[in-house]
Structure formats: C-alpha cells, structure tokens
Amino acid sequence: MFSIRKIPLHSVDSQCDLSGDITLGKTSDLLCRNGLQTAFFHTKQTMENLIEHQWDQLLDRLEATVGKRPADLNGVLFLIGVQELGKGTLTFTKEQKQDLMHIGICKVLSLAGYYELETVDADGWPHWRILKKPHFTDLAAQEQMLKESVVHYFATEIGI
To answer: pTM score, two decimals?
Structure first.
C-alpha cells in the first residue's frame, strides 16, 4: 500500500497550469505535454483526485469563457453538444436539449474509440454509431469516465 502525501506540482511544460497542490501517491509521476496533464498512478484514489482537480479547473475556465459556471456534468455535456452542433445559441426544446447532451456524450467518448460519427442529417444534427460499449461498474465509475473524457475533449479539441 502506498502512502498519500500532499506535494506541489511542477510542470515539465510551461504551457501547463499546475498551480496549487494536489494529493498524489508517494511514487506517482506527473507529466505535462501541450497543456494536458497526464498522470501515472499507483492507486485509484489519486487518479480520481487528479481528475476532480482538472474538472474544477475546467469549470473555472468555462465560467470565465461562457460567463456562467455549469452546474454539473450534464450542463457541460450540453455545452459540448451545442458546440458540436455548430448552430450557435438557439432556443432548444426539452427533447433537443437531451439530444444535445447525447451528442456531447458521443463526441467525448468518440475520442476514446467508443463512438464514430456516422452521418449528419439534413437539419445538421450528427448521428453516431457505437463501436464498442463502455463498461461501467456503477454510476460513480460512469461519471468519473465521462469527466475524464470531457477534460480530454476540452484540452485536445477546444484548447482550454
């Protein structure tokens, strides 16, 4: 069992913001390339701590960019869906909002090979094909995977 200690983070890449402290495992290594933090851990808990830290940083950046902090994961997935739809700010029905969250989920999981864009219909809405089904042990694991995928999406696709 590895002991957990609080250590300051240092970046090997000046583009990566690693301000503050985060709890990491005793033998953990942290690398940073192109503004994306990548960690190699020896415990599940330390990885979850890093993802939560990155998630909080992302919410802060979205608040600064959009002017309002998303309340939860669904709010962020909705924003991703709107971004991927590419029609700008519109008024959406309740069903369209659910569809936008589905677009957000498919997009972020497509980066990990779970979905593939199949087509865009005549109204400009994307339709996705499932390549492999994500396997979650429980709802907490599902939320954790989605948060990690969302952080990766914003780092690689949007640049924040």
So the answer is: 0.71
